[in-house]
Write a structure and sequence with these properties.
Elements (H helix, E strand, L loop, with lengths): L4 H21 L6 E11 L2 H11 L3 E2 L9 E4 L5 E6 L9 E8 L2 H10 L9 E2 L5 E6 L5 E6 L21 E7 L3 H11 L3 E6 L8 E5 L6 E5 L15 H7 L1 E6 L2 H10 L8 E5 L5 E6 L5 E6 L22
Parallel strand pairs: 1-4, 5-8, 9-12, 13-16
Antiparallel strand pairs: 1-5, 2-3, 3-4, 6-7, 7-8, 9-13, 10-11, 11-12, 14-15, 15-16
């Protein structure tokens, strides 16, 4: 049976239609370049203000991006957002985590194409920053911001900062189900493994997942208690504050701690300095509501426990 060239072309076009539809229905993922901020609750706003301004040395921006809380900037694009504590908070002081993207609306469309519920339209802060919020597969609130310049540097505000480090290199968050976290952050968003380890060499208590287009990372905090035991159903505010944390990178831990001590900028609950299981110097302090601030050197000084690093090290210049 002879088939005309025109018929063959028509059949080929029909074959291509589903493939074209799939391609058009799954937009490319815009870049996710780093950490934007961590948002926490405060039961005493005055004490928390003193902690982030005097103890940590952040710059308080006159008006927050959202208009609901107070933003304490670590550099011109990263900050800690402090919110009044709601009655429903219980022991938890974490409201949300947030990352930066080059295209908020494009990322929203990408997540919808991947089956993630996302709001429409993308919202806009008073500053002009475009953003949206979704839930990860454990129900945690995650924001993505396409920031405009806050002009802190242009106005000379950051020159007033007395921070010992100027970049949030990672944030940590309680994760009960690593597989569920991986489906969201790794499989959909493209985060990549940077390092994993535990208090015991054969256990995994922490998993560091770098953003796909930078060196900042999200740390899955899988354990509160004995190594490898997971997170108990009932957990105290202090335990939650250890898990849900932020980390500021420093070049020299000895110099950073010496400055903090000489200026009386360390709380009684501090711990360290010590070398962590990842081979990096670290020092821990806590805000008035027990949220942990971990100072960490950018590069390891000894071989890490449990697994090698599989991604690039952060640097003082950021992503």
């Amino acid at each position: 049976m002879k088939i005309s060239l025109r018929l063959l072309c028509s059949l080929y076009s029909l074959y291509l239609l589903p493939l074209t539809a799939v391609a058009q229905g799954t937009p490319a993922r815009p870049k996710i370049t780093g950490i934007s901020h961590l948002a926490v609750y405060a039961s005493d706003l005055s004490k928390t203000n003193d902690y982030y301004m005097r103890t940590v040395g952040c710059v308080r921006f006159p008006t927050s991006l959202t208009g609901q809380g107070t933003d304490y900037f670590v550099d011109s694009s990263q900050f800690v957002e402090v919110l009044p504590i709601p009655p429903s908070a219980g022991n938890d002081r974490l409201d949300h985590i947030a990352f930066t993207t080059t295209d908020a609306d494009g990322l929203r469309r990408y997540l919808i194409a991947k089956g993630v519920a996302a709001p429409a339209p993308v919202m806009k802060f008073k500053s002009g920053t475009r953003w949206f919020e979704v839930k990860d597969f454990e129900g945690n609130s995650v924001q993505f911001l396409e920031p405009i310049s806050v002009s802190l540097t242009a106005h000379g505000a950051m020159s007033q900062a007395s921070l010992v480090g100027h970049h949030i290199i990672h944030i940590g968050m309680l994760v009960r189900d690593r597989a569920a976290a991986d489906r969201f952050y790794r499989d959909i968003l493209g985060f990549r493994l940077y390092w994993h380890g535990g208090m015991q060499p054969d256990k995994t208590d922490w998993v560091a997942m770098q953003v796909p287009d930078g060196t900042d990372w999200l740390e899955y905090m899988l354990t509160s208690g004995p190594s490898g035991s997971g997170v108990p159903a009932s957990i105290s505010q202090k335990q939650l504050g250890v898990l849900n944390h932020l980390s500021i990178g420093v070049v020299s831990m000895s110099a950073a701690v010496a400055t903090l001590k000489s200026e009386n900028r360390i709380t009684p609950e501090h711990s360290g300095p010590q070398i962590g299981k990842d081979g990096k110097w670290q020092f821990n302090d806590f805000d008035p509501d027990e949220t942990r601030l971990e100072y960490m050197e950018f590069t390891p000084v000894e071989k890490p426990c449990c697994a090698p690093f599989t991604g690039p090290q952060p640097s003082p210049e950021g992503n």
